[in-house]
Specification:
2 domains; binds flavin-adenine dinucleotide; FAD/NAD(P)-binding domain
């Protein structure tokens, strides 16, 4: 009987346990420092869990070449088939985002998790602090079993308050693996000299991220003005591209509120109607009345991203060059890494859960082959 350890009962770890539990020749020991499984999976997609996207492309990840390798092995269609084989029905919205048909993330957790399965040993409220090699085997803390294979599925410190960020990957420090520091991604930005008058305003706009005069990325969507900065899915996506910049200096976001009517002549409109109150959100109009601005290029200078506690994912983690195509650590033949533990992050829309599940499928295939 092969003994397999999965460190982390989040999206990727649960999915892997579901794939492996059908194989009676493996015993699965799954560890999580939380009392409950699937904490982030339950919180994802506003409680609905956007499981994946039908139109996933490699360039929506920070390492497109690595993402292309994954997509060659696991397509969104393949992931759909696997979920269907677990009995999960899904619905797809007009932007290709796939959710459980129940529109409830707990449904996804329920089809993945079966702690009573005969070959599953569930160790919740168990923090892994030490992972050590013992000949051809691995040991975890003082757990009484030695493992043939260990799968690192401990996620990232995104969306956690600082005191909970401890230890999530410190047990790896003695293994000589290159790990990039985690910085927040899919997060809003604090803005310099922020116009607080806009706080609470929600509008649609075309948002463009610039470094100096260079356009980095442009997208249309809803913007939320907070007390000291901006957020909303479109801004979260800009943060993913911001993180790809080596130097983060001289960056600003330009908002075009006239996305619906590019040809409107603002001066002529003002001449005819005396104000822009029929064009802009009342708060934007109030700001305009105080100090006119270019409503097609409203520039906001980035101060810094919000804290990790507000981020959906992290940019950083185990360097993707540390793993072979089958996601085994090149330096450690029986150690695998999946999900957000790897330095892989994608934009909003099901990209991050897709990577968590797809990487689990690849590793399951390798463990079963053995
Ligand atoms: C609010 C929010 C909404 C999101 N919405 C979406 C969405 O709709 N679609 C999408 O694609 N992505 C979404 N994401 C991102 C997605 O949830 C993550 O990318 C995904 O959960 C990563 O899966 P994972 O298995 O790598 O990590 P996780 O799901 O975070 O699981 C890691 C597990 O490891 C455990 N752990 C950590 N360290 C240790 C240790 N030392 N010992 C034992 N256990 C440990 C943790 O407790 C955790 O349960 C969202 C994220 C957030 C925060």
């Amino acid at each position: 009987m092969r003994q397999i350890a999965i460190i982390g009962a989040g999206a990727s770890g649960l999915f892997l346990s579901r794939l492996l539990r059908e194989h009676p020749d493996v015993e699965i020991h799954i560890f999580d420092r939380c009392k409950q499984v699937g904490t982030k999976l339950r919180a994802s997609g506003g409680g609905k869990a956007n499981l994946f996207n039908e139109q996933i492309t490699p360039d929506c990840y920070n390492h497109p070449e690595f993402a292309a390798q994954i997509l060659q092995k696991v397509t969104p269609e393949r992931l759909r088939q696997v979920f269907e084989s677990f009995g999960l029905l899904m619905s797809t919205d007009e932007e290709g985002r796939v959710y459980p048909l129940s529109q409830f993330s707990q449904t996804a957790v329920d089809v993945l998790w079966e702690p009573e399965a005969p070959n599953i040993h569930s160790n919740m409220d168990y923090e892994v602090k030490k992972l050590t090699r013992d000949g051809d085997y691995w040991r975890i803390n003082d757990y009484p079993i030695v493992f043939n294979d260990v799968v690192l599925a401990s996620g990232s410190p995104a969306n956690m308050i600082p005191k909970n960020r401890r230890q999530y990957n410190e047990y790896l420090t003695s293994l000589g693996i290159k790990i990039h520091p985690c910085v927040p991604s899919l997060v809003g930005f604090k803005i310099k000299d922020y116009p607080t008058l806009l706080s609470g305003c929600r509008v649609k706009a075309i948002a463009s991220l610039y470094q100096g005069n260079r356009l980095i990325h442009k997208e249309f969507g809803e913007i939320t003005f907070k007390d000291d900065g901006i957020s909303g899915i479109v801004i979260l996506n800009l943060s993913a591209y911001y993180n790809r910049l080596e130097e983060k200096t001289d960056c600003h976001i330009s908002l075009n509120f006239l996305y619906h009517n590019e040809i409107l002549d603002t001066k002529e409109h003002l001449r005819q109607h005396g104000s822009l109150q029929g064009v802009l959100h009342p708060k934007l109009n109030a700001l305009y009345e105080r100090k006119p601005f270019d409503i097609k290029n409203f520039d906001l200078i980035i101060d810094e991203p919000y804290d990790l506690a507000f981020a959906q994912v992290c940019h950083g983690g185990i360097d993707v060059n540390e793993v072979a195509e089958n996601l085994v650590l090149k330096k450690h033949p029986h150690l695998f890494a999946i999900g957000e533990m790897l330095d892989m992050d994608g934009i909003c829309g099901g990209y991050n859960l897709f990577f968590a599940f797809a990487s689990a499928i690849i590793v399951a295939g390798n463990i079963i082959k053995k």
